[in-house]
Write a structure and sequence with these properties.
The protein is α/β, with parallel strands linked by helices and 683 residues long. The protein contains 25 helices and 27 strands.
């Protein structure tokens, strides 16, 4: 039997070279017979719209018309063999509204692109003329359905032949290709990059010229106009450069793409410069995410995919287009888990109440304290002393020291985490203290930590210093240093130069220092997340009975020799940052990666308000809001406190910021809840 004739589609749009319909046309022509119908874009508008550099020719459609063609006449003047099996009208430009569509003896479909702008009202009216309505912006689909239309979500996409990756050098740090004419926020954000000294390139270009710029850029900046999932998202990802974009709640973006896996998000405007710098400084991480983002869009987000989905619905082969969850499943099918290449170390290498585990590499030349002075300190503090020597020379000199209970001697430097694990294996006491060798320690500090470990709720790790961590940016929100606080505080992570743990939680208990970070960096944050994952807690406890100078050992070394390798501290930091993110992002543990800083701020503010300490609470909430400008809870908390203190004018910017972050936020409900908690705590 002869093969059936391909579907004949009349594709109606204004002949404008850079409109979405052009990509739809290119995809349709692979599987259908296509005849374009519609007007030519007016040449005089090129100057008015500032697009003379488009470098693409204007052309007529195959059936040229004016902007309000009479479809009855077009059908009557067409031969039977040239009449369509499907009429598809795609929103383009200039108000193209054919008349007498009802005379078409075939299914009629339309595709609305910009419902999020000022077009929704006429979309809802114009859509009534069609048998099938496809909508690019998911947020509005239900409005069409509520008016009886057969409406379906069909997001925008990319054309790999146009937007594909070009093998060119990365000459731009951050690039933006597009217009700021109708989106002043883009100008503000680009100005914020300039103010923060983040290099960026800006231009207006199209098609393969745009793809060239994207391919030549390390980071591509995007800013939605109005919570829309715009073309730039898909086109930028297709070029294989990292897309840095904003959050667009309700658009489907959050379901289609994962922050830190396929693209990067700035969650509030203030975060943009820091996020841009973070990815510019972490090449491996950036390129890993960018490469995965490209695979994701090629798997499920090309216009070939969109056209196939649309036609399947029109033919009755399925009831509706793919959901966001289905698209996500299609886009990741056959892909390795995120960071799979980095999820394992790149270096393949083979009767007391407490113990003190001390890794020792040298005599800490950059500090006045070292293993010899620390052993003298421990003469006045009871407990087993377990030394893990990462250098045979130092081991030979100290092996017989009377204060060392037992020791392990490594023939080479095995790094911090491995040494800690060796020490834990040697320990046989309920509490284990981990000490840097370049530390001066007094008995009062040990007693304060021991009490905290024994008495604080669910404590698994305590220390005198620690922080709330912005795990997405790899830096602290708020750090508690020596003498900065006077009560125990539950934190995200305890600093690794001095801390204590319960041995019962290690080994069979499930915790273990992560060997992947050999020789150093990120051990503490990793342990903090393990502790969260196990339902346990980390605390900083107030004590000043110790002295430690940061980077005492590392600062003295341009290169760190370990396990037969030699690397600079900066190289190790970059490598282990990637390992850390690989481990925790690929597990999809978003809740674990949320800092406890919000709970801390809420509790602190209420306690200070109850105590009538107005100046302290005002300063505290403003510092917290500044430290975490993308935390809705802390912005709202600052607004509540300032409002409660009668500072309504100062409170307003914080409330506005909270609503910018979450337009659905119930501010009144949040305030009522805080007021109730505040009143419950009063005697």
């Amino acid at each position: 039997m002869p093969a059936p004739s391909p579907l004949h589609v009349w594709l109606a749009y204004v002949a404008y070279p850079v409109t979405t319909a052009v990509y739809i046309e290119r995809a349709l022509r692979h599987i259908c017979r296509v005849t374009t119908v519609g007007p030519r874009f007016p040449e005089e508008r090129l100057e008015e719209w500032q697009i003379k550099n488009m470098n693409l020719p204007l052309r007529d459609q195959e059936i040229p018309t004016d902007f309000t063609p009479d479809m009855k006449r077009l059908v009557e003047t067409s031969s039977a063999s040239n009449r369509p099996d499907l009429y598809l009208w795609v929103e383009s430009v200039m108000g193209h509204f054919p008349e007498h569509l009802e005379t078409l003896a075939c299914p009629r479909a339309c595709y609305f692109i910009d419902s999020h702008l000022s077009n929704l009202a006429w979309h809802l009216e114009w859509g009534k003329k069609f048998d099938f309505v496809f909508v690019a912006q998911r947020e509005y689909v239900e409005q069409f359905r509520s008016m009886g239309m057969n409406a379906h979500w069909l997001p925008l996409g990319c054309d790999p032949e146009v937007h594909g990756k070009q093998l060119v050098p990365k000459v731009h740090d951050v690039a933006f290709v597009g217009s700021t004419l109708f989106n002043p926020r883009r100008t503000v954000l680009l100005d914020s990059l300039e103010a923060a000294a983040v290099p960026f390139h800006r231009e207006r270009s199209y098609w393969t010229e745009m793809a060239h710029t994207f391919s030549a850029s390390k980071v591509i900046f995007n800013c939605a106009v109005k919570r829309d999932l715009n073309m730039r998202v898909f086109e930028a990802l297709c070029t294989g450069s990292l897309l840095l974009t904003d959050m667009t709640p309700g658009s489907g973006q959050a379901e289609l793409f994962r922050d830190g896996e396929d693209l990067a998000l700035y969650r509030c405007d203030e975060e943009l410069p820091d996020m841009a710098r973070f990815y510019l400084e972490n090449d491996d991480l950036r390129e890993q995410i960018a490469a995965r983002g490209r695979q994701v869009v090629l798997n499920a987000h090309t216009y070939h995919h969109r056209v196939a989905d649309m036609l399947a619905v029109i033919r009755g082969e399925k009831s509706t287009t793919c959901s966001a969850e289905e698209l996500r499943a299609h886009s990741t099918k056959g892909l390795d888990a995120p960071f799979n290449d980095y999820a394992t170390p790149r270096i393949h290498i083979s009767g007391n109440e407490r113990s003190f585990v001390i890794p020792v590499l040298d005599y800490s030349p950059a500090s006045e304290f070292n293993i010899a002075t620390l052993l003298r300190d421990l003469e006045n503090i009871p407990g087993d002393v377990l030394v893990v020597f990462n250098d045979e020379t130092v081991a030979a000199e100290l092996k017989g020291h009377p204060r060392i209970t037992r020791s392990a001697v490594m023939t080479e430097n095995i790094g911090v985490a491995r040494a800690w694990n060796v020490g834990m294996e040697m320990a046989a006491t309920p509490q284990v203290f981990i000490l840097n060798a370049d530390l001066h320690l007094e008995p009062q500090a040990v007693e304060a930590m021991a009490r905290g470990l024994s008495m604080l709720d669910n404590a698994a790790c305590v220390g005198p210093q620690g922080s709330f961590v912005n795990f997405r940016l790899g830096k602290d929100f708020l750090y508690f240093g020596k003498g900065d606080f006077d009560i125990p505080i539950e934190v995200d992570a305890v600093s690794g130069f001095l801390f204590a743990v319960k041995r019962e939680h290690f080994g069979p208990g499930g915790l273990r220092f992560e060997n992947a970070y050999t020789p150093c960096y990120f051990e503490e944050w990793d342990l903090g997340l393990q502790i969260k994952q196990a339902g346990l807690k980390s605390y900083v406890v107030p004590t000043t009975a110790y002295t430690h100078h940061w980077s005492g050992s590392i600062a003295a070394r341009r290169e760190i020799v370990f396990m037969g390798r030699s690397e600079s501290p900066q190289e190790i930091l970059r490598r282990n940052r990637l390992l850390f993110l690989a481990k925790w992002r690929r597990e999809r543990v978003d809740l674990l990666l949320e800092s406890y800083i919000g709970d801390y701020g809420r509790k602190l503010a209420l306690e200070l308000l109850r105590a009538g300490r107005k100046e302290q609470v005002e300063e505290a909430v403003q510092q917290l809001a500044a430290a975490a400008p993308c935390r809705t809870d802390l912005q709202c908390l600052a607004g509540f406190v300032l409002g409660h203190l009668g500072r309504s004018i100062e409170a307003l910017p914080y409330i506005k910021q909270a609503l910018r972050l979450d337009k659905s936020l119930d501010v009144d409900g949040f305030i009522r809840e805080l007021m109730a908690e505040l009143e419950q705590g009063h005697p």
